[in-house]
Every structure is written in structure tokens, then in C-alpha cells.
């Protein structure tokens, strides 16, 4: 498994800490929170100030993210949610179910929830944007794989197994493809107890890729609540997503590029 560059990880950890507290932080607060030496924390925060991602106030001696961060990813949301049609479907599903709604995509050998509308219920499945699940062992992952060819899935299984040192935890292609074929036949995924015990996911692929990526809209919540709404969720997804007509042949999941990109290491 490829490791994470320590300095890069720390910079992102600091940004996520700011997101969690939503207020300026002092050097001591950052150092104490992560149990870092003060000198290391100071060097990192100073670097982030120099690069323009943090602002330092000399009067309060606190740091705060700049608006550069707020605008850095605007182009991504503009491309993902062009015309607001994807967000409109996600909001409609949330109004229907009250559950967590996510937009998912493949990220190398993971299935990632890249955008999340949190549940309005007190009893729910907690999910943050960026949460990743194993591509071959999750409901979202199985759904995303259903857009790939069997040959690509076989190669992905081999890649996952190469990185798995424990032979007992390696995947079998026949078991993976059986789950994928079930999703292909149904036209959607309904997976239970794959995320956490008692939770379920119901999802469907977007009819065309966004930014060249296979994507899916999903409803995630307690299994009993999703079971009661299963028919309504599937009907809403089918009806709304069927309106998103692919622009041309190059924008469908059958193009060669959509399958070749899954082979990149």
C-alpha cells in the first residue's frame, strides 16, 4: 500500500481541524490537538501562511483559512453539478427519505463518497465527504463496477489482491462478478450491512460520466427505513436520472476510455 507523505498529510489534517471547529486557532491549540512539537507545528503553519492558505493575525496570535481555500475547488463543483441537475435529484431524494444522500465515484481502488447531504434524522449513518470504502467490498463499489467490463473488473481484482498481504482476505473474481451482475440485472444496488451493521445503501449510476468518471447517486440509512422506501427510492432515481440524456456516444459508459482509465495505477 502506498504510504502518505507526512508533511502533506499534516497540512490536510490542519485544514480539516479548522473545518471541524469553524474558528481561528492558535499555534498552541494546533500543536496540542495533534500532539506535535511546537516547532514542527509552527513551521507548518508558517508555510501555509506563505502559500496563502492560512492568514495569521498578530494581535490575537491566531491562524485562520483564507478565502483562497473557499474558491480553490469551485471549478470541480461547477463541472460535477452543471445545470444543478445532480443536486436537484439529491435534494429530492432527501426530501423523500430524510436520509443521507451521496454522490459517489471510484478513486483508484476505493469507492469514495465525494459529496454528501447529511441525514435530517437523529438516528442515522454518519458519513463525511471524502469517505472511502473498499471498491470490491461495498455496495457503492459494486454499483460503480457495474459500469465496467468484466475484463477491467478482473484486472482490478488482481490489483487489489496484489496489495493484500493476507491471502485469506483476497478477493475472488467469481464472487465479485456475481454481485456486479446482480446490480446490472436490477439496474441499481441495494446492499445491506456492508457499510456498518444495520445500515443499507440504495443507489443508481448517473446515465453519463462527469469529468470522465463513473458516478452514482445513493441513499444511505438504517436498513429498516430504507427497506420501507425501497420502491419509492428506485422509482424516483429511475424517473429523474432517465431525464439526464447522454449528450453523445463519447459521454456514455460504453466508450473505451471509460474502461481504460480504471487500469491506471
UniProtKB/TrEMBL annotation:
Any Pfam family: IclR_C
The entry's keywords: DNA-binding, Transcription, Transcription regulation
Region Disordered, residue ranges: 244-265
Keyword Transcription: yes
Presence of the UniProt keyword Manganese in the record: no
Domain IclR-ED: from-to ranges: 68-265
Domain of life: Bacteria
Name of this chain's protein: IclR family transcriptional regulator
Species whose genome carries this gene: Sphingoaurantiacus capsulatus
Amino acid at each position: 500500500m502506498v504510504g502518505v507523505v507526512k508533511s502533506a498529510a499534516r497540512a490536510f489534517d490542519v485544514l480539516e481541524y479548522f473545518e471541524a471547529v469553524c474558528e481561528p486557532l492558535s499555534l498552541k491549540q494546533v500543536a496540542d490537538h495533534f500532539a506535535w512539537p511546537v516547532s514542527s507545528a509552527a513551521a507548518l503553519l508558517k508555510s501555509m501562511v506563505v502559500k496563502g492558505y492560512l492568514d495569521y493575525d498578530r494581535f490575537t496570535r491566531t491562524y485562520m483559512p483564507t478565502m483562497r481555500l473557499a474558491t480553490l475547488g469551485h471549478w470541480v463543483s461547477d463541472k460535477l453539478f452543471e445545470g444543478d441537475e445532480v443536486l436537484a435529484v439529491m435534494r429530492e431524494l432527501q426530501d423523500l427519505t430524510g436520509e443521507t444522500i451521496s454522490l459517489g465515484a471510484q478513486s483508484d481502488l476505493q469507492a469514495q463518497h465525494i459529496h454528501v447531504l447529511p441525514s435530517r434524522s437523529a438516528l442515522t449513518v454518519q458519513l463525511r465527504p471524502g469517505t472511502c470504502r473498499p471498491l470490491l467490498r461495498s455496495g457503492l463499489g459494486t454499483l460503480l463496477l457495474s459500469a465496467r467490463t468484466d475484463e477491467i473488473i478482473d484486472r482490478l481484482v488482481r490489483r487489489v489482491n496484489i496489495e493484500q498481504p493476507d491471502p485469506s482476505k483476497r478477493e475472488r473474481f467469481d464472487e465479485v462478478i456475481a454481485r456486479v451482475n446482480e446490480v446490472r440485472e436490477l439496474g441499481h444496488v441495494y446492499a445491506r450491512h456492508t457499510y456498518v451493521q444495520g445500515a443499507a445503501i440504495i443507489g443508481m449510476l448517473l446515465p453519463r460520466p462527469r469529468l470522465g468518471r463513473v458516478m452514482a447517486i445513493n441513499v444511505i440509512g438504517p436498513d429498516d427505513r430504507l427497506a420501507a422506501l425501497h420502491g419509492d427510492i428506485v422509482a424516483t432515481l429511475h424517473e429523474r436520472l432517465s431525464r439526464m440524456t447522454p449528450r453523445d456516444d463519447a459521454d456514455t459508459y460504453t466508450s473505451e476510455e471509460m474502461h481504460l482509465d480504471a487500469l491506471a495505477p
